Fold this protein.
Amino acid sequence: MVSGRVTPGAKSPEPGDLVHPFMIESSGIRGRLLRLGPALDTIVRRPGYPETVGRLLAELVALGTTLASTLKYDGSFTLQIKGSEAVRTMVMDATSDGALRGYAGYDPEAVAALEQAETPVTLPAWVGKGHMAFTVDQGEFTERYQGLVALTGESLLDSLLHYFRQSQQVNAGILVSVQPPQSSASGGWRAGALLIEQVPDDNAPKFDRVDDEDWRRALILMASCTDGELVEPSLAPNDLLYRLFHEEGVRVFEPRPVSVGCRCTEQRMERVLRSIDRDELEDFKVDGKVVLTCEFCALDFPFDDGDLDRLYRSEDASADDAASEPRTAAD
């Protein structure tokens, strides 16, 4: 991986949807700086979420993308919220090649009531009793890893930090900031996140361990970062990292691009239709078509009578072929 020490005026990558890995040289503490723009705007804006729901989803996408970037996996990472109040479910996932998607399921009336509240609305009011789930899926031939943590504190960030401390035995500091379209110079949703982590390793040589004083200092320096600095596209990532950690020395590594990457396809929608009896589809028709909509990207897949005839005809032919195959003693 290409790396370089940040110095005043050091060139930064062009603004975009990127994760910037870095290391504080004096202590070996590693971190991630995330900037999301167009990809996040597509995920949040296209389905037409209320701004309050969009803000919560944007925060989840930013936190999940940052966390996924710290893991080594070949497949997909999912961060999911299950709630019992205005927001019933919220999920983001990221593939190992940087494709992102997100979805929120909510009660419109309950959301509208919370939006009219005169006092700030915290996470418990949005989700009630619920949990956060982390899943790493590396394919059908591997065992999925899943972690669960109760939703605690006033924000998603509180719950994530609780998970790091209680379940992973990892010291982590995380900041996240979300900027809605009307507050963004670009006119779209933007988000930023900053993470530093200290992974304990009792077997590491003394010079490889992170001193408690170094860790506290890193947290103090990170806390000086403002919400505006996290999301501001005109503030180059290298300049922000230099401002925060130049006294300690900071080394940046090659940034990792991320982008919108929903995995819905017409073939997947066809498999959904085949699981339903043809006669039952008549009740779902609108203007003579059955329309399936992807919950993640809000893309519509219309199927008219000709499409349905083709689908169910091919399914019947496949069933007939299977029934006519000769059977062996082993079968």
